[in-house]
Amino acid sequence: MIPSMTDSAVKAAMKAITETSATTSEKIEMLIEIAQGVLKKPKTANDVWNAVALYDKADELCQGEHPLLKARAKLGKANALRTIPDNGTQLLLQAKTNYQEALPVLQELASPPELAEAQMNLGLVLQSLIPFKLAQFTECIQIYQQALRVFTYQEYPQEYAILHNNIAIAYLSMSTGSQQQYLYEGLAVQSFETALKHINLIEHPKEYAMLQNNLGNALQYLPSSHPFKNNLRAVTAYDEALKIRNAQDTPLEYANTIANKANALINLPDNPEKPESGNSRNLQEAINYYQQAFEIFIKNKQDEQAQVVSQALQELEAGNE
Length: 321
Prior knowledge:
Oligomer: single chain
Structural class: mainly alpha
Radius of gyration: 24 Å
Distance between the termini: 60 Å
Helix content: over 70%
Low-confidence stretches: none
Strand content: under 5%
Number of strands: 0
């Protein structure tokens, strides 16, 4: 594996490929392999662009032959393009085109997991294009569900969890200002809960914590005639996530979860059976969580998140005086 590729190193690799006595298919495979090595640990955006150049060369060598290798070159290029920081949509649209061109060939010639991974990544690109009105949530959900036919919880628990998480987030985004708000938010909660039937704390701790944290968020903001019940369920979900997330090993994830839990606590009475007794204990716990989260965000230079928590803390302390 090549840790970093300079322009001269890419040229040398391409020259070596040209001069070798290997077959065309072997040359294409070598170019794809080198590009994959670059993308494993790119040090700069230029490394990613160099990988794109290698995939383009592999694509060019395919000409009208080697359809599966050509599809893999397009797939690799799409994976590279979607990781390059870009405020606009040009690179995402290029990635989308490459995925869509590769998918029919993968469907015919590739293994089911290779096809499902491409579908999953195309879903991520489509989800990124939605704010620009260049894709629809229904497209994302549909392609994620296609990937779930292969990425089952028995064989691919990590991908299974991520797909259900992404589907739920798509449903939550669809609910904003929608007439079907209750339906979409209910489907989001259902997607989290479906995944959590199979993703457990012992075998899949990272995915378990992600799903529990995001389930808590969905429950907390779910319109309901039983807000106490939903907030209690949200706090329980956050507590499950906090069995994994901690300030030492996963500080940013921990800070996000305790800030989310604080948001729920401020809306809960200390004793749900006697709401008239107030919530001074929960308010104090929320203040403590906000303070912890603020310190972690500042330490890790997460200024935007620190500002949000700081504002919530100020409002809470002002209302608590």
